[in-house]
Specification:
The complex is a heterodimer of chains A (115) and B (111). By secondary structure, chain A is mostly beta strands. Chain A contains no helices and eleven strands. The N and C termini of chain A lie far apart (37 Å).
């Protein structure tokens, strides 16, 4: 499978500030990566599909101006939570598929706490 | 009705027990079925991947898919405390690489 590195694993920020989360594919060139949000005891919620060299595709109900996604290279996608508020506190996870299997490979996740 | 239903548990079993985890689904287009293990504060890890109906075995883990009943299972033999985690089922159709996830079942294996 693919190795996906996500950073930081945990971040605490003040309300109104922006936070950037990085997702790197260490051994696979990923044209497509995915960003999920997970609430406690809830399933993974797909936020957006990140496409290398083009705009991300956002799921219904996800504010694209709030959650900025940049997929600048085949190995790096970033999610920036802009003007964060306490309700943005959550666990954010990136993933990719290699194409040889329909399974997805996930990063370690980022626990965002907005105070 | 959600596309994928999974009992959140928690499911508590003694060490050495056989664990059965299950999901049901409603979308008959699903052809690819996956199980993930997620430890607390970590990303999910792909455990098993199955295409269409049938069984697949990997060590202590066995995945079963019954498309006629729209029911999938994951069996864990000789369960260990290190198996304590949340197990998520996921599935996708032939035209999509994006899986639909269940909400996960919390498993606790006590010594």
């Amino acid at each position: 499978g693919a190795v996906v590195s996500q950073h930081p694993s945990r971040v605490i920020c003040k309300s109104g500030t922006s936070v950037k989360i990085e997702c790197r594919s260490l051994d696979f060139q990923a044209t497509t990566m995915f960003w999920y949000r997970q609430f406690p005891k809830k399933s993974l919620m797909l936020m957006a599909t990140s496409n290398e060299g083009s705009k991300a595709t956002y799921e219904q109900g996800v504010e694209k101006d709030k959650f900025l996604i940049n997929h600048a290279s085949l190995t790096l996608s970033t999610l920036t939570v802009t003007s964060a508020h306490p309700e943005d506190s959550s666990f954010y996870i990136c993933s990719l598929t290699t194409g040889t299997t329909r399974g997805a490979f996930f990063g370690q996740g980022t626990r965002l706490t907005v105070v | 009705q959600k596309e994928v239903e999974q009992d959140p548990g928690p499911l508590s079993v003694p060490e050495g027990a056989i664990v059965s985890l299950n999901c049901t689904y409603s979308n008959s287009a699903f052809q690819y079925f996956m199980w993930y293990r997620q430890y607390s504060r970590k990303g999910p890890e792909l455990l098993m991947y199955t295409y269409s109906s049938g069984n697949k075995e990997d060590g202590r883990f066995t995945a079963q898919v019954d498309k006629s009943s729209k029911y999938i299972s994951l069996f864990i033999r000789d369960s260990q405390p290190s198996d304590s985690a949340t197990y998520l089922c996921a599935m996708s159709s032939g035209g999509s690489y994006i899986p639909t996830f269940g909400r996960g079942t919390s498993l606790i294996v006590h010594p």
